[in-house]
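Quick illustration, no need to memorize.
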Amino acid sequence: MSLRNVGIVYRKELTEALRDRRTVISTILVPLLLFPVLSVGFGSLAVALVGKAKEEVPKVMLRGGEDSPEVVKGLKKLDTIEIVPETPGWKDQVINKEIRAAVEIPSGFQVDVARQKSDTVKIFNYQGASRKPCSNPLRSTGKTSRLPKKSAAPLSAASSAIWSSFSA
């Protein structure tokens, strides 16, 4: 087949396609109108969903902390999280995304903070589904909070340190 014959067939097909009104509309006009509308629509939908997620106050369950009432009180004062009471099925609540995380405050935490000692607070949050059948979907993030030596309010600083480690 020669290049001349290819050109003749190409020219014939192009003129037939341009004569058909439906072909012109579907190949030129629909994409010119539809793509900008879809781009703006999906963009505004994404902005609305992100705005809704930012407004949502995460629910956090406290585990332990019975001997650290000032720390618990400091965490409850935060308006960026909602503290929910501890229940036996907390792992299922985290996995089912009913609560965002579970914070485990070790015993003697308030005394350790008052003595300027560091201690580890465990934060359990949902890690996500895994392809491994036996993997644990919960992730424990043990954060050690070190406070400055001359902290004016060590208990409120401890509450802030726990929350900042949760949000990081």
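The chain has two domains: 3-54, 57-167.
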